[in-house]
Amino acid sequence: MNHQKMKSMTTLLLIFSIFTLPSFLTNTEADYLYHACPNTTTFTPNSTFQSNLNRLLSTLSSNANRSTGFYNASVQTPNNAVYGLFLCRGDVVATNACENCVATATAQAPERCPIEKQVVIWYDDCMLRYSNESFFSTSAESPGIYQWNSQNVTTEQTRFNQVVAASMNEVATEAANDTDKFATKQAKFTDLITLYSLGQCTQDLSAAACDRCFREAIRRLPICCSGKQGGRVLFPSCNVRYEIYPFYAENATAPAPAPGAPPPKGKSKIPTSTIVAIAVPISVSVLLFVVGYCCITRRARKKYNQAAADEPSGENDITTVESLQFDFATIQSATSNFSDDHKLGEGGFGQVYKGTLSNGQEVAVKRLSRNSGQGTEEFKNEMVLVAKLQHRNLVRLLGFCLEGEEKILVYEYVLNKSLDCFLFDPEKQGQLDWSRRYKIISGIARGIMYLHEDSRLRIIHRDLKASNILLDGEMHPKISDFGMARIFGVDQTQASTNRIVGTYGYMSPEYAMHGHFSIKSDLYSFGVLVLEIISGKKNSYFFQTDAAEDLMSHAWKLWRDGAPLELLDPCLWDSYSRTEVIRCIHISLLCVQEDPADRPTMQSVVLMLNSYSVTLPLPQQPAFFLQSRAMGNMLEATLDSAQSISKSSPSVYEGSITEVYPR
Q1: Comparing C-alpha atoms, which of 596, 597, 599 is closest to residue 530?
Q2: In Å, what is the CA distance from 583 to each residue of 336, 414, 578, 619?
Q3: Is 517 helix (H, G, I), strand (E, B) or coil?
Q4: Could you give the domains of the chain?
């Protein structure tokens, strides 16, 4: 009897393990990646277009169980046609993951883009797209989204990049000629590291159109992801990705095994108890392996996602970054006891030194002066905030020192110091040709978009300026100095303060005059910064002349008179892109408009920079809140007397922390 019960229990365990196995293999969560919906084409709520859109989304969702993982449809009435499609990742087609992802996308897309007619939204398992214009069978490489793993390859980066390129090219060729426009590949990099690659197009594309889309995506891959352990480029019509862990089902594109010989007829001679005794341990082992595999891949996926949308913690507890702490003796040794020979610059609240750690790593050491006005809480604010931000266009905090009255931040050393050292130096201006300046503008925009959009809590920098933009060895920009940053809740749009902090000339009028700040305050500062990059002149330059106007006024007059290119730095006249320059001036004027509501979001700015198909609205007259030098001097004197502003200086790593509100 006991033997019979044991057989029954083991049989039940076997059945349970077999039937629960698929639940571990299927990821029921739709992992959101990004969305794009320019506000240039919108519809009226409760209109015929919205009704048609709702019908389309319902149709797409109800067809998410198709074996191809792809479906397109349209709903057409006069002047209100809407076209849409979804594409599930090739290894999750005809599974719950595909259905769940499409259901999530069709529900969230209207929430994220409530009145926009043209929408693309990406998830890890699927992509959804709809528009008021037909785009079927047409390749679209804009907007382009880049995401990358936060970890670098530690050895043989050049060869790793070569393996990535070769593998992606093979995937592209195979996928473009595949019926489902999907392919994966594995390539050995070392005995311990295998590279996993994936490429996919929407299935309505021809092989040639799919191949063109792939080649553009692969061409852009090194821009974001050179030397990274993983990365991807997302286009509306195709996407490519690589990792050093299996992020897709490895048998998704493997050929089906040949059918085996039919089992012999008749009763098996192997006893049932023996079968159960063998099968149960095997099935349990497989089950445990699958659970462990899912945990590992999910952990790796989280690491990847943090590179694209890392979220700062809601805690200001210094113990959360104890592992980053340096002792004062180490800092003294690294900087030769803060020798003048190591000094990189001096800002309003301390000095910055170049240091070399015992392992040979070069660092930048920011030593706050004792009379800096920054207390322990303010110090923690910058330290905790920057330590939790990971983006290629943000300066990386390596550690800190907090001993006695010493408050020190240790940053990555950025070879080419700050943007103002090149931009406003007549001897170095020539090193910033237009191509580099355009890349700097785009990089700054991506960094600010990360702060504003890609984290759960919005981060307002409040001190964007040329001296707070550092340039690495390849002239890639890195936003620095977060001491004045404020953290907003996801639904918070504006805050006010009685103490104005920032740098004269970059502050928006609503902030300088009334203390109101928001993400649109950063947009205003960005607009001023872009005009400086284009012209090679400081905003304050115009107050030192008889023009009695600021840089925004000057740019507006040239724009209004049809001569925007006269703003261009003379050292760029021999080689520049007329279209790019005019577009950047256009964008900057949109950013410095007087009403914050008229300024775009940084997400829109990035889209405008990356896509020439996006129509830009016409800018209005910018904010002339300083109508004369007398008024400007009055405001400057008022701010100076309140000790609540740090003027620009040509030094690197300039500190301008004056008043911080830790969360």
Answers
A1: 599
A2: 48, 29, 8, 12
A3: strand
A4: 32-131 (3.30.430.20), 145-243 (3.30.430.20), 318-412 (3.30.200.20), 419-641 (1.10.510.10)
Contact 575, 581 (CB under 8 A): no
Helix (H, G, I), strand (E, B) or coil at 625: coil
DSSP state letters, 180-195: TSEEEEEEESSSS-EE
Give me the mean pLDDT over the 307-331 stretch.
55
Helices 602-610 and 519-535, packing angle to 10 deg = 40
Name the pTM for this structure. 0.50
SS3 629: helix
326-383 pLDDT tens trace: 889 999 999 999 999 999 887 656 789 999 998 889 999 988 776 555 556 666 666 7
433 is catalytic: no
Q: Is 232 helix (H, G, I), strand (E, B) or coil?
A: strand
CB neighbour list of residue 646: distance below 8 Å, 6 or more residues apart: 347, 348, 349, 463, 502, 503, 654, 655, 656, 657, 658
- DSSP letter at 428 equals T
pLDDT one-digit tens code per residue, 13-42: 333 333 333 333 344 557 899 999 887 789
How many angstroms separate the CA atoms of 471 and 659, rounded? 26
Token pair of 527 as six digits: 């607009």
Q: Which of 124, 463, 481, 522 is catalytic?
A: 463
Strand partners, 87: 70, 127
CA distance 571 to 422: 13
Determine the Cα–Cα distance for residues 176 and 164; give it in Å rounded to an integer: 18
Three-class SS of residue 233? strand
Report the alpha-carbon distance of residue 71 to residue 24 in Å, rounded: 27
